[in-house]
Amino acid sequence: MEAKRLISVLPIKQVIGELPLEVTDLAVDSRSVSAGGMFVCIEGHTVDGHDYVQKAVDSGARVIVASKPVDVDPDKVAVILVEDTSRAIGLLAACHYNYPSKEMTLIGVTGTNGKTTVSGIIQSILQAAGESSAMTGTIGFELNGTLYETENTTGDALTTQSMIAQAANEGCSTMTLEVSSHGLIEGRLAGAEFDIAIFTNLTHDHLDFHGTMENYGNAKALLFSQLGQDFSKRKFVVVNADDAWSEKLLDKTSYPVLTYGILNDAAFRGTNINLTAEGTSFTLSSPEGDYDVEMNLIGEFNVSNALAATAALYAKGMMIDDIVKHLGEITAIKGRMEKVETNLPLTIYIDYAHSPDAIEKAITSVLPYKKNKLIFVIGTGGNRDRVKRPIMAEKASIADYVVLTTDDPRNEAYETILAELAVGMKHDNYACIGDRVEAVRHAISVAEPDDIVIFAGKGHEDYQIIGSVKYPHSDAEIALSEALKKFGTGALEK
Ligand SMILES: CC(=O)N[C@H]1[C@@H](OP(=O)(O)OP(=O)(O)OC[C@H]2O[C@@H](n3ccc(=O)[nH]c3=O)[C@H](O)[C@@H]2O)O[C@H](CO)[C@@H](O)[C@@H]1O[C@H](C)C(=O)N[C@@H](C)C(=O)N[C@H](CCC(=O)O)C(=O)O
Ligand SMILES: Nc1ncnc2c1ncn2[C@@H]1O[C@H](COP(=O)(O)OP(=O)(O)OP(=O)(O)O)[C@@H](O)[C@H]1O
């Protein structure tokens, strides 16, 4: 690409050296620089990209974008100084890929819980309606039936733009992105032009990163400011009328707002909710009238998620009849209150709850049809938000029996994680077992017919990070094998 055109998108402080006519590629990692390319130095949490300039130059970098002076030969390498390289990379990547988000409807979903589920519902409905669409988030980057692995819920700016470009090139007319607060703060979404921004909820999580709920909420609000103020565009904001933070978000944008909710009046409201082990039914009141909705997704929180997805798809121009029909066809969202299909005399769910509110929602979603004990296995990550640990256990105490364990212990000792969780327990019916494999086995060992067992915290993940090594791990596999031993052939998978 023409170098001059590429850097024209940047607020430049200084250009040092002679700019080449063209740059071949863009990179934020010195290990992936190609000859004639541009290397953008990012100050990370672990290392500083500015320290890798020489490596980038050795690999052929011809232009360096930096936020502080770097030592290179100005006759061979041009240096562009900018204030903030994390934002610069988004702008450069969008230009490099020729603004791929302009070619499609870009939907951003933010909030503490429900991002993956809402994105998954939107993606499933669009696919069922025959529309080519893509989605990216915690589970990966899903494009035309292929699931690519992703490192983060919201990828770095270069990865984000390249995924949007790939989706556009493969003919997708819509792409849904899970937007994390970390991603917003770190400018990973710079250059992404959203058409619809969805807010699910704001509850306790990630305070190790944000410090206060106020900062955390303000981080989420960046998605709504990022919609811009270009009123020649049809853009929409979808917010949860049941969450007090929604009001604050509305100050950030002047685009039309669609509200959804269960408790409070909203444009898309769910009432007459009936929760069963097989699924959920409710009445959807919408700007187009009332509809009876039947879905396989369980739990009241999934009514909220379904309403958010419905409002967004309506904003996009889809008929509510079609949305409701396809909602009923969705079987499950991977690892989100996903029932393990067996002939067992008990019910097993795999879930991803790892915040206090999600734990409460996961547990209360099954209470209406609980016949015997509810056993809840909950782990939390090592070297991450410690403040939430006792609150997680406090919420888990709603269950009859709780197994406190770890999800990704990383470099933290089991003992400290478990002790900090246990502080919050409200009753004595619990066990502390740091090794998650043993914790899963224990949960099945105490289970009886008609019990419900929820394994929370690992969801779709098929690994556990212990130290800095990823070991294969599957709650469902361990639980099934243990149940097979305990309940005999009745435990065979359906
Ligand atoms: C704390 C955090 O946000 N870390 C993210 C960050 O890593 P980092 O700051 O450690 O990066 P770094 O290793 O210091 O590297 C800095 C720069 O030097 C470059 N470098 C590095 C080495 C080298 O040899 N050459 C070189 O050029 C790197 O390419 C990079 O550009 O940048 C990486 C690349 O974008 C991210 O993958 C990484 O996410 C880590 C894995 C992470 O766990 N992040 C969490 C906190 C997070 O972001 N979570 C949210 C979801 C939250 C939710 O549950 O809702 C998410 O969006 O994933
Ligand atoms: N709307 C909701 N409100 C509260 N809890 C929810 C909601 N939707 C899902 N949950 C719970 O939170 C867990 C995580 O859901 P989901 O993956 O959709 O959220 P997320 O925002 O993508 O989370 P993460 O960023 O950690 O991936 C689910 O397994 C469920 O227990």
CATH superfamily of the largest domain: Mur-like, catalytic domain
Q: What is the overall pLDDT average?
A: 94
Number of domains: 3
**Total beta-strand segments:** 24
Query: What do we call the CATH topology of the largest domain?
Result: UDP-N-acetylmuramoyl-L-alanine:D-glutamate ligase
Helicity, as a percent range: 25-40%
- Which of globular, elongated, flat, extended, rod-shaped describes the shape? globular
Low-confidence stretches: none
Q: Do you know the CATH architecture of the largest domain?
A: 3-Layer(aba) Sandwich
Identify the CATH class of the largest domain: Alpha Beta
- Distinct helical segment count: 16
Find the structural class using helix and strand composition. Answer: alpha/beta
- N/C terminus separation: 55 Å
Strand order of the largest sheet: 9-8-7-10-6-11-12-13-14-15-16
* Radius of gyration based on Cα positions: 24 Å
Biggest sheet architecture: 11 strands, mixed
Bound molecules: ligand UAG, adenosine-5'-triphosphate
Cofactor: Mg(2+)
Protein name: UDP-N-acetylmuramyl-tripeptide synthetase
Main location: cytoplasm
Subcellular location: Cytoplasm
Describe the fold and architecture.
This protein is of the alpha/beta class and 494 residues long. The chain has three domains: 3-92, MurE/MurF, N-terminal domain (Udp-n-acetylmuramoylalanyl-d-glutamate--2,6- Diaminopimelate Ligase, Chain: A, domain 1), CATH 3.40.1390.10; 100-327, 3-Layer(aba) Sandwich (UDP-N-acetylmuramoyl-L-alanine:D-glutamate ligase), CATH 3.40.1190; 338-491, Protein-Tyrosine Phosphatase, Chain A (Alpha-Beta Complex), CATH 3.90.190. The protein has 16 helices and 24 strands. The chain has helices at 3-7, 53-58, 85-96, 115-128, 157-169, 181-185, 207-210, 213-225, 245-250, 300-316, 320-327, 356-366, 388-396, 414-422, 436-445, 475-487; strands spanning 12-16, 26-27, 38-40, 63-66, 78-82, 105-110, 133-137, 140-143, 146-148, 174-178, 196-199, 236-240, 257-261, 268-275, 280-286, 289-295, 338-339, 347-350, 374-380, 401-406, 430-432, 452-456, 463-466, 469-472. Helix 3 runs parallel beside helix 5, helix 4 (115-128) crosses helix 10 and helix 13 crosses helix 14 (414-422). Bound molecules: ligand UAG and adenosine-5'-triphosphate (ATP).
